[in-house]
Amino acid sequence: MSVLLLFSIFAPSFTLVVGLAGCRHDQIQAITQFKNEFDSRDCNQTDYFNGVWCDNTTGVVTKLQLPSGCLRGTLKPNSSLFGLQHLRYLNLTNNNFTSASLPSGFGNLNKLQVLYLSSNGFLGQVPSSFSNLSQLYILDLSHNELTGSFPFVQNLTKLSILELSYNHFSGAIPSSLLTLPFLSSLDLRENYLTGSIEVPNSSTSSRLEFMYLGNNHFEGQILEPISKLINLKELDVSFLNTSYPIDLKLFSSLKSLMRLVLSGNSLLATSISSDSKIPLNLEELVLLSCGLIEFPAILKNLKKLEVNLFNNLFTDLEGSGEVLVNSSVRLLDLAYNHFRGPFPKPPLSINLLSAWNNSFTGNIPLETCNRSSLAILDLSYNNLTGPIPPCLSNFQDSLIVVNLRKNNLEGSLPDIFSDGALLRTLDVGYNQLTGKLPRSLLNCSMLRFVSVDHNRIKDTFPFWLKALPDLQALTLRSNKFHGPISPPDRGPLAFPKLRILEIADNNFTGSLPPNYFVNWEASSLQMNEDGRIYMGDYNNPYYIYEDTVDLQYKGLFMEQGKVLTSYATIDFSGNKLEGQIPESIGLLKALIALNLSNNAFTGHIPPSLANVTELESLDLSRNQLSGNIPKGLGSLSFLAYISVAHNQLTGEIPQGTQITGQSKSSFEGNAGLCGLPLEETCFGSNAPPTQQPKEEDEEEEQVLNWKAMLIGYGPGLLFGLVIAHVIASYKPKWFVK
């Protein structure tokens, strides 16, 4: 918002025309030539030219804003772009330029006032020609691979916003940088900057309001000079690797400070006491991984505060359960500490409350129900007992996320939801809940994620949840669900948007009709309209909450993996399902993992599985399947794991890199199978030839002629998800924006 407002303030007084209508012919030629210098097949031509703005009087191009990811290739030093010397606004953010250095030709565009070049993979040092851009108000070079220092900024005297974060800049911050008269926002996070920081004596007149220095290698007492920048509103000095503890009293002069990030630093114990001189107007205090043992008493005094204390060493709250009641904290993250004992009564004004991965015991305090503005409640991975309070219905007009996973809660899920409830995520897995699923969940029309796995719920399959228009993930694993999973009319299951269905280890029975998988979301899955990679709540201005599921992949079990928005998984294992596997399974082009093991399926493996081209994990073991393994499975490029062990399969195992690379155990228990990776050879044996029954081919043709859009998605999604989970095992589910 601030960037847009800034440009509108400084924008020159000429009339701009969107598109090519007001552009001179030579300018249109230059813009077209620039586009043709790249592979632009992914670029919508209308969107591209709608990002061109021309001066209505002179016809010259003055603004160029390309769609994200529009161009692929190398930005060459002689590009026609650098002939557009009347440009005042240029945005090339997030394109697919082949990694190369920043062309010096940018220095020719000396009328530029706004320049965005972030997320393009540019390498090397910033050319000295950038010092020619003396009219710049905004310069964004963030998220590249740039090195060296940036002395060119001393000539950019009109600069107001400078974004150089997430690069490889090194050396000291140029002393001239903090003397720029209009500089209001400086972001240097995630670089290799060293040395000290010099703040001029005239700093009291500095306009600097936003300063982000986290994750660098500064030396000496850098915070003392920063304390002279009295107009600061936001300051990030996280992970400075200082050899001394930080005294919060250093920030007492920053009376306008609203957001302070000190994560990854050691804090002076006396400075977090109640008599600290920290600015009382502070709204957000982030203390992740600070090694704190004593609970900060300053939280009792601060107003309008949002606090993140994730991953410290707290064991108790330094007082009774009412230590936070009178606090005005709105956002409180106590996750990944060592808190024990009863859970405290939350602050009256609380909006987001996270305390996952601690050792809290006792009941969920009933006082929680009086916090009418509570939107996100995450008390997962604790030792809480007793029932889920029915009074949670008191704030169903605000409650978006309830995560009580991995506690020892008892009783049934309260049937408390009335029409218009805003709930999107409900996760109560790994408790001792009994009874049935509450039918009032039908009133939660925005519900997207439901996980009740590993409880003692005794109910039939919830066909009635089909009425929820946006339900995407349903996990019923390891309960006492029973009965058929086929609709009474023997038609498709067809939840409107369901793409993750985990019902393993229950007592489901019956067979599946041939058209069971018709009209499933997984047959035409697309990325979220908002472009989000993971499922979760992204609407809070300060925090992100991301849903997680337990993953079963390649025969391994992994906890708490994030849920990608662009894939589908099905797990019906460990039930008593029988009959043939529906041929319509071949319609699920976005399916990445399928587990039908430990059932009583009979008949042949559907040849249509060869059409599920994104499939990475397939487990059909311990059934009563017969016939040959379809040859088409050998051509599935991403199939990392397959098991058909302990069936009645015969014939030659299809040969292909993904098949022959499997272990012998994936095919054991089938007396009639031969070929690699088994030791039994098919030559000279009595093994029947590998062919598919005629009637099966006809059925496949009939099923795959059903009307369906078959869209494939990128390779290795689930494998990448598992790797990401390993890397991020100790990262929070909540993220500071």
Number of helices: 7
Report the strand count: 48
Look at the structure and give the mean pLDDT: 81
Shape: globular
Structural class: mainly beta
Radius of gyration computed on alpha carbons: 30 Å
Give the helix proportion (percent range): under 10%
The low-confidence parts are 1-17, 685-732
Characterize the main sheet: 25 strands, mixed
Q: Which percent range describes the beta-strand content?
A: 15-25%
- The separation of the N and C termini measures 15 Å
Transmembrane segments: 710-730
Pfam family, one: LRR_1
Membrane topology: Single-pass type I membrane protein
Subcellular location: Cell membrane
Primary descriptors:
737 residues, 25-stranded mixed beta sheet, 7 helices, disordered N terminus, cell membrane
Structure description:
It comes from Arabidopsis thaliana x Arabidopsis arenosa. This protein has a 25-stranded mixed sheet. Strands 32-34-40-42-44-46-47 form a 7-stranded parallel sheet, with no helix packed on it. 46% of the residues are buried. It contains 7 helices and 48 strands. The longest helix is centred in the N-terminal third of the chain and has 12 residues, at 25-36. It is mostly beta strands and 737 residues long. Helices cover 8% and strands 23% of the residues.
